[in-house]
Amino acid sequence: xxxxxxxxxxxxxLLVAFNILMNERGVTRASRVMGITQAAMSNTLRRLRxxxxxxxxxxxxxxxxxTARALEVAPQIDQALAYIYQAFGQGKFDPATARHMxxxxxxxxxxxxxxxxxLQLLEKLAPGTVLELVDVDFSNPQEGLENxxxxxxxxxxQHNNFSVSPHSVFPLTFSCLFRRGHPSLKKKISMEQYLATxxxxxxxxxxxxxxxxxxxxxxxxxxxxxxxxxATFGMLPFLLRDCDLVATLPAVTAKSMAKNFDLVVxxxxxDIPSVPIxxxxxxxxxxxxxxxxxxxxxxxxxxxxxxxxxxxxNV
Length: 315
Known about the structure:
This protein has 315 residues and is an alpha/beta fold. Helices cover 41% and strands 22% of the residues.
């Protein structure tokens, strides 16, 4: 039976199963969420495939990835279920009992600051949930949201990705970070010292060639000597600890890194415009209770770590 042949005979539970498969990306995990056997879940997937006349999910390593047809109908099914839950008064998400997988992508710039408290919060308030960190093209977050790779993305919001779906925006300010005992840098850095010191520069993935630091220096008629360009944060604290380098980083990240690696934080000796970092999501999850709850927790974390943000609800 196709879904259009006779709607009166269609099992709406199939839509619930589809939604869970989209979230869990695996028959075994989906069966646990639904409280049925793996064999029963496999049979449900077969019925879904017959109904939509499409494979819907195909095996890719240890995961099942949605087909183009599944991605096409997912937002419509998600919205339809949201309306049904609201009609029956079941539109709430109970984190204490929920079994859910959240897929998020977080830019390296703030991951080390946000991930530990986020995991602690989930462990305390939503112990049945699982957090999966995924990779996306941070210069084009819309793609990662539309294809279902991520439910939530935290990254810089530049002019070229400001048209993405609804998001909260928080301002990132900057600080200098260097090793204790640096031969030429102390707690307060002059412009002359800043320019005379060798720098290590981190460029977030997808933002190569974009540096608010160097753009600001150029406007002031200056340039700095960058000895190392990094695409990930992994080596940065070790380079700062062992070499006479300085890094200009988001202040909240510099503070955390200084605490964990015994480094020194100092003000930047010139004014750098704050950079907006956004918590981004797809409009199809606007009213989905689980994601509304997750976004509220993330907004609270960002406010505590970075500062108050603003909601941008694009049409």
